[in-house]
Structures are given as structure tokens and as C-alpha cells.
Design goal:
- The structure is a single chain.
- Helices cover 41% and strands 15% of the residues.
- It is of the alpha+beta class.
- It folds into three domains: 2-82, no CATH class; 96-121 and 153-318, no CATH class; 334-359.
- Helix 2 packs across helix 4.
- The radius of gyration is 26 Å and the shape is globular.
- The two termini are 48 Å apart.
- The relative contact order is 0.12.
Amino acid sequence: MYVAVKGGERAIENAHAWLAEERRGDPAVPELSVAQIREQMALAVNRVMAEGSLYDPDLAALAIKQARGDLIEAVFLIRAYRTTLPRFGSSLPVETAQMRCDRRISATFKDAPGGQVLGPTFDYTHRLLDFKLAAEGDVAPAPQAAPQAGPVPHITDFLNRDGLIQTEEQSEEAPPDLTRQPLEFPANRALRLQSLTRGDEGFVLGLAYSTQRGYARNHAFVGELRIGRVAVEMEVPELGFAIQIGEVELTECETVNQFSGSKTEPAQFTRGYGLVFGQTERKAISMALVDRALRWRELGEDNLGAAAQDEEFVLSHCDNIQATGFLEHIKLPHYVDFQSELELVRRLRAEAEAAREAAE
């Protein structure tokens, strides 16, 4: 047993050394720096920050480099590091109406109050490979509009002035912290949103797509999608007031969904909501669609049996780190388990063969 353990340790050490060599790649090719990944692979960095629940572009870029571009592995690294950090306080809720928007669009109002800002987007590209990038030539700087200054009211607020959209309930209670408390059911909306913003983008996207194809009652319009930076503030007891401790880039999406009404309440639109670190608009829109699908009970709707309406199914399976851990553990040694099942199959076959011979 001792020899087997030592042999296993050497094999693991060699595997790690080989992994480091593969990660580096051809030594004749210049090594990627963390700064290059942070600046030129920003969308990957944003996804790792969002699903890792830690806003730090440098650490996310380092995790991507260490993980050889495997974003789920990078998320795992970030979450593991996050658990080592001390907590010394809580920030105040960010005011997204005060966001300095680099991008702000609406699919419901052409002349949106405050104007529409396309910002940096793939939406209008032709999806053709740009071989100039392979030549590593410098890209000419594009004229950049200054971020919108001052308050930028949410477009759904204008609908709310006339009572045309459901008013969100405000709670004074601090929401539960999913990173410190286990997920329990039934989960309130704040907990569901936390789980979705940490959830795997592909999984949440698939669920959102299913709602659009009829596997939930979810005909949605993007009321507003905005990307920009917001201030993070924290109350300091010694000072007696809040101070700004930094700022973060966020993507926020509010969807305007099919209306509801009753004999006592006039018809009005309902909402879905998504908020994610960085420029992560596909995830934010997907999150808003799934959020709306999960609200069927509180809105008095029928459960159509769709996957996106099943709270336990969605929240229990959207976390890619839990999914990865459970999936990949099956490649680890299960010799004892397999041998017991192998012996069972052999015994069953022997008993069946004996019964067949006896019958003859």
C-alpha cells in the first residue's frame, strides 16, 4: 500500500509538471501576460468574475491563464480564492439609475428618454473572420462617445408612471447570502437572482431559449439593456455616512413581459430582471427571461410544467462548479464500487445459467 501511494504521488507530480508545460505552449511564442488577457479577452474575464462572484479583473485574467482558457476551471479557481478573503463589511445597494452608461438600448421605445447608445457591440457585425487580426496589425482607434453623465432613469420607470407595469415590492430585510448559506427551497426572488447571476451562462441561456420556444409563458421585450460603471458605497460607522470605496462595471437588463390582470386589478405588464458583472449582456438577458419564468407562482399564473418554471430544477443545476465537481468525480478511482457491481453481475449471470440448465 505504501509503495502504491508513493507511486501515485510521483505520477500526480509528473502530471502537474506536464500540465504546466502544456499551458505554456511553444516557448518560441511570446507568453501571454495577465494584462493582455485582461484587456484583450475582457468578455471572458467578465464571465469568470460573474460566475466566480468576485469582481477583480486581474485575478480573473490570472485564473484564465492558469486554466489554459478553460473558463469553468477559472471560475473554480476564483471561487476557491474568494473563500480565503476576509469580510469586513457590506456595501450599500448600487444605484444603477446613476450608471455611467457606455451602452444603453431599448427594444420597446425607439425614442428612449436619454437616447439610445449602441456602444461596443457585436450586434451589427457581419460575423466574417477578420484576417487583419491574424497579421497582428494595430487597429485604428474608433471615435468614442463620452459615457452618459448624470442620472439615467430606467425606461421602465416611464411605464410605471401610468401604472402600466407591475411595481416591484421593496423589502427592508437584507437578502440571504448564497455564498455563506446553503440554498434552501422555496427560495425568494433575491436568492433566485443570486443563484442565476452565478449560474453557468450556457445553462441559463438554454433555459431562456426554451421559454421563448413555448416551454413557459414568457413573451418578452427588452425594455432596457444598459452597460456601464456604478459607484460602490459603504457606510462607515465611525463617520456616520456612506463613502465611495470603488466602482464596478455592470450589465443590467429589464424585460417587459406579457401583461396580467384580474377583476380587481387593471391589466399591466410584468418584469424580468438580470444584473451581472462586466459586459455580459447575453447572460443578463437570459437571466431576466428565466427570472420571469420562475415568478409564475407570485404572479398567480399556471405552472405549465416547463423546466424553466421549476425552481428546484433551475437553481440546483445552474451552478457550473457543483455540476463540474459531480460530473468529473466519476473519472476518479471507483475500483471497489465497480468490483462489487461486477461480482453482482457475474452472480446473476451464473444463477440465470444454472436455472436454464436445470430447466433443460
